[in-house]
Design a protein that fits this description.
With 280 residues, the chain is an all-alpha fold. It has 2 domains: 2-234, Rhopdopsin 7-helix transmembrane proteins; 235-280. It has 10 helices and no strands. The protein has helices at residues 2-7, 9-12, 15-39, 42-67, 72-97, 101-124, 154-177, 183-207, 214-232, 236-279. Helix 3 (15-39) runs parallel beside helix 9 (214-232) and helix 4 (42-67) packs antiparallel against helix 5. 36% of the residues are buried.
Amino acid sequence: MVCAMIASAAFWSHWGWAAATAVLGFVFFALVVRQYLLRRRLHQLAWAIGLLFYAIAAAMEAWSESSGEWDPTVYRIYIVLAASLVGFLGLGTLYLVARKRRWGDLYFVFLVACMVVFFVGTSTVELDMAKLVPGITVGGQALGPSLGFPRVMSLPINITGTLLLFGGAAWSVWRFARRREFGYRAWANVLIAAGAALLAFLGSRARLGDTAGLYPAEMVAAALMLAGFLLAGTLDKGVRKARAKRQAVGGRLAAETRRLEKRVEDERQRAVEARADLDD
């Protein structure tokens, strides 16, 4: 009985998976917004926008599945948000790792242009209503063929966003793994990279028409990235470790210096005493 339920498509497309993803997404969004309000960094703002898209899209999935109806207007908005979230996560990563802000600004212009074209296309295209029903994982199938317009417009957003997000996380792993005091940041970025890779894999499968397990996998991807974010914290922890290490090394050097000075002083004192004995 249980095995049959788990094997059914209805189980894997149940609204509970999407609802759990939405909760994780809104929690993640709130944490990043809090960081942005404290530090006002562009990469945090871009991540917050991407995570808000993530949470809203998941909430739309949960609402549509639980209500037993996919509203066409809701779907048109949902598909643009779902396709664009990785782009904004990648934009945040680009702002974080790029030495010059203009690279992030240029990608932002590219991203918004793709979103506008995609939104206009989804607003005017005739939807395949046979695909727009609860109980199956819709993905982008209701827009038509995978490489047809407007569905094809999700490709430049997904591909570039995934490359930036995954590439930035991988670069951070390499950067922090070389310093033991920042090892926790390396593991945090491993989790973020794993979540990004899972999102990319899900998008590729959905584009090929295989959307089985999309909702629970989205939840796992959100959980991985949230865990990485929480583990990463800030650089303060690593800085404190590095400072403590330097202080410990400095303390040992100071103690060794004092021992050497005392030895030199003792030897000098013995030399003085030996010379006095010879004079006598």
